[in-house]
Every structure is written in structure tokens, then in C-alpha cells.
């Protein structure tokens, strides 16, 4: 009787393993989700500055000098536009993710704007 129970558990475990192998995402899919690709946009500095003033100055200061958040006055010299895009979209630490509240094109425009700060 125990043989049948154990073989049933083994068979179930094998079936479950096969299902997981074919349904879990691969490394490429996980990497794509982890690093979102930045849409190509033409920099509109006025629109980006408006978005920064509306969403960022409460933590980063009116001159981007820092405060609750870090200084962003020379962020373009340390981070690429793609890195800034990912950071703004996903958030980090106490910084909220803006992916749900801003369009991807708006985040990309802000990222390009901040990347010019060198």
C-alpha cells in the first residue's frame, strides 16, 4: 500500500515539475521585465520641467538641490537616460514608482531632461 502512495506522490511531483518547466518565464523574459526599454521621444524641455515641478520638487527641491531626495543638479553626469528612466518608472527606496501615474513617454522625456543636467 505504501508503494502505491509513494509512487503516486512521485508521479504527481514529476508532473508538477514538467508543468513548471514549461510555464515559468525564461531568463530573457525576466531580464526584459527587470529592465524596461525607454521609448524614443524628442526632448521637450518645457514639458519635462513642468512634470518635474509637479512631481519631483517636493523631495528633490525647487532647484533640484536635494532635500528628502538626493541632489539631481548633476544627475546626468552619473546616470544615463535609460538608467534614469528605469529609476523614475520603478522607484527606489522611499521614491515612489511613477509608471502608474505618468505615461511612458512622459517618463522618457523627464529622463532625457534630467540626463542633460551635468
Automatic annotation (TrEMBL):
Binds 1 heme c group covalently per subunit. Coiled coil: none annotated. Heme c binds at residues 56, 59-60, 95. Keywords: Electron transport, Heme, Iron, Metal-binding, Transport. The keyword Electron transport applies. Residues 43-118 form the Cytochrome c domain. One of its GO terms (molecular function) is iron ion binding. This is Cytochrome C. The lineage of its organism: Bacteria, Bacillati, Bacillota, Bacilli, Bacillales.
Amino acid at each position: 500500500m505504501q508503494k502505491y502512495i509513494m509512487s503516486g506522490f512521485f508521479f504527481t511531483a514529476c508532473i508538477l515539475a514538467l508543468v513548471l518547466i514549461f510555464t515559468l518565464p525564461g531568463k530573457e523574459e525576466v531580464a526584459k521585465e527587470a529592465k524596461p526599454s525607454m521609448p524614443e521621444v524628442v526632448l521637450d524641455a518645457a514639458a519635462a520641467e513642468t512634470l518635474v515641478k509637479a512631481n519631483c520638487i517636493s523631495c528633490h527641491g525647487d532647484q533640484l538641490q536635494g532635500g528628502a531626495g538626493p541632489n539631481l543638479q548633476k544627475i546626468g553626469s552619473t546616470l544615463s537616460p535609460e538608467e534614469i528612466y528605469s529609476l523614475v518608472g520603478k522607484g527606489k527606496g522611499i521614491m515612489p514608482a511613477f509608471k502608474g501615474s505618468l505615461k511612458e513617454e512622459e517618463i522618457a522625456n523627464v529622463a532625457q531632461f534630467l540626463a542633460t543636467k551635468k
